[in-house]
Write a structure and sequence with these properties.
By secondary structure, the chain is mostly beta strands. Helix content is 0%, strand content 48%.
Length: 126
Amino acid sequence: QVQLVESGGGLVQAGGSLTLSCAASGRTFSSYTMGWFRQAPGKEREFVAGVTWSGLRTYYADSVKGRFTISRDNAKNTVTLRMNSLNPEDTAVYHCAAYAARTLSVATNDDRYDYWGQGTHVTVSS
């Protein structure tokens, strides 16, 4: 099992940057594929970015490609989402999520993920 705690959210102006972090408990963090999802008010939760257990492969939603960067540090049990060129459409609650798998791909559907953090709010003002 793994417990996830996000941090780093806040209020930022359009065009600005934020870095979200997800700290995971447990000794087998490197056995988990990690993802970031977001849910805006009145909208369904959507995949944002994901990284394989090794950190060698990353995946992004088209809406954030080129602006967001996901990375992980298995020695520190952390996953980071660097968000640049933020716009008001990025306003949402961002969740870190995990599922146990050591594969070369990342699931983009949220029902594949077994563990979720409480989320951190990101608000981008225009």
